[in-house]
C-alpha cells in the first residue's frame, strides 16, 4: 500500500474507503470574490460546506478527491478549516485549469519566450507535491490539467506537458478534464504518452458525459481510468443514459476501468446560485449514494463491481504514486 497525502495529513491508501474521485469543495473566481464579495459570506459558506460534507460522510463515503487547482480558486487554509470539522479525507491537487491560454503570470517566462527559462510551472507543481501548498503542511497528491472544446491549444499543451514533467519527477497520478464531444481524451492520451506518462496513472475526467462505447473503450484499453463523474449534470447527459453506459461497460468487463463521482461542489460562482439549483437539482454530493448506486444495481451491476469502482480503483490509482 501507499501513503496518500490528504488535507489532514498522510493516510494509508488502504484506509481511503469509498472514494468519490472528482468533487470540489468550492469553485471560485478568487479575484472577483475578493473585489466584489456581495455573494460571499465566509462563515456561512464554511458552515454550509461542513453540513454538506457531513451528510456525504454519513452515506459511507470516506474520501473525496478535489481537483481544484489554479484557475478554479484553490485556497487551502479555508479547506483546512472545513476539514477540521468533518471526518472525511479530502485529497487536493496541483496544476493549472485552462481551456485556452496559460495565466498571464506565465505568458512571458518559459522555454523560448521573452524570458527564456525552464518551464516555471513544473517547479511549482513539484513543490506543491513534495513540500506543501502556500506555506501550509498540506501536500497535493495528484496533478490536474484540462482540454476542452478548443482542443490542444498552445496554452493547454504547455500546461499538459508541465503536468507530465512533474508526474515524471514525482510519480504523482494525473486527472485530465476532457470534452467528450471532440474526443479530446484521445489527444490528451497521445500527448501524455509521448511525454512518457504511464496512462494507467491517468483518469480521463468527464468520460461519463459520453455514450460512445467505442470512444470510451479506446480510452480504457489504452490504460486510463474513465471518470464517470458528472452525475447530476443531467443538462449535459440525462441520468438514464449515464447509468446505462456504466452498466454496459461493467457488463463488458470494464468495471476495473471506471471511477465514480459528481463534479459537485458546496458552492460554485460560475452560475447564479438559485438558478443553478433549479437547472440541476440533483447536482450534489449525495446523488450517487441515494440514486445512482441503486439504479446501477437495478441494471445488474454487482456489489463487487461497485466496490471495484468506489474502493479498489481509487486505491490503485494512488498506490501507483511514487
Automatic annotation (TrEMBL):
PROSITE patterns the UniProt entry points to: PHOSPHOTRIESTERASE_2 (PS51347)
UniProt key word Metal-binding: yes
GO molecular function: hydrolase activity; zinc ion binding
UniProt keyword annotation of Hydrolase present: yes
Modified residues (N6-carboxylysine): 144
Binding site for Zn(2+) 1: 22, 24, 144, 263
Family designation: Belongs to the metallo-dependent hydrolases superfamily. Phosphotriesterase family.
Protein name: Phosphotriesterase
Organism: Planosporangium flavigriseum
Amino acid at each position: 500500500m501507499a501513503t496518500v497525502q490528504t488535507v489532514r495529513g498522510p493516510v494509508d491508501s488502504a484506509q481511503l474507503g469509498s472514494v468519490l474521485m472528482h468533487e470540489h469543495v468550492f469553485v471560485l473566481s478568487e479575484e472577483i470574490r475578493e473585489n466584489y464579495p456581495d455573494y460571499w459570506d465566509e462563515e456561512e459558506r464554511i458552515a454550509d460546506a461542513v453540513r454538506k460534507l457531513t451528510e456525504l460522510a454519513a452515506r459511507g463515503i470516506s474520501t473525496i478527491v478535489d481537483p481544484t487547482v489554479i484557475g478554479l480558486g484553490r485556497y487551502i487554509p479555508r479547506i483546512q478549516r472545513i476539514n477540521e470539522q468533518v471526518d472525511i479525507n479530502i485529497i487536493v491537487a496541483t496544476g493549472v485549469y485552462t481551456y485556452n491560454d496559460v495565466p498571464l503570470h506565465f505568458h512571458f517566462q518559459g522555454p523560448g519566450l521573452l524570458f527564456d527559462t525552464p518551464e516555471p510551472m513544473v517547479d511549482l507543481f513539484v513543490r506543491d507535491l513534495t513540500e506543501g501548498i502556500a506555506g501550509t503542511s498540506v501536500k497535493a497528491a495528484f496533478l490536474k490539467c484540462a482540454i476542452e472544446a478548443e482542443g490542444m491549444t498552445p496554452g493547454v499543451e504547455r500546461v499538459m506537458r508541465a503536468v507530465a514533467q512533474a508526474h515524471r519527477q514525482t510519480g504523482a497520478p494525473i486527472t485530465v478534464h476532457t470534452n467528450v464531444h471532440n474526443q479530446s481524451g484521445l489527444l490528451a492520451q497521445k500527448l501524455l504518452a509521448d511525454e512518457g506518462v504511464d496512462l494507467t496513472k491517468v483518469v480521463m475526467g468527464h468520460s461519463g458525459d459520453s455514450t460512445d462505447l467505442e470512444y470510451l473503450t479506446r480510452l480504457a484499453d489504452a490504460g486510463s481510468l474513465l471518470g464517470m463523474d458528472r452525475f447530476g449534470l443531467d443538462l449535459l447527459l440525462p441520468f438514464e443514459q449515464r447509468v446505462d453506459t456504466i452498466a454496459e461497460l461493467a457488463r463488458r468487463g470494464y468495471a476495473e476501468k471506471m471511477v465514480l463521482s459528481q463534479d459537485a461542489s458546496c458552492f460554485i460562482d460560475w452560475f447564479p446560485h438559485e438558478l443553478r439549483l433549479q437547472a440541476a437539482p440533483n447536482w450534489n454530493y449525495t446523488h450517487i449514494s441515494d440514486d445512482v448506486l441503486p439504479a446501477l444495481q437495478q441494471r445488474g451491476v454487482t456489489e463487487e463491481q461497485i466496490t471495484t469502482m468506489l474502493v479498489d480503483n481509487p486505491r490503485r490509482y494512488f498506490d501507483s504514486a511514487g
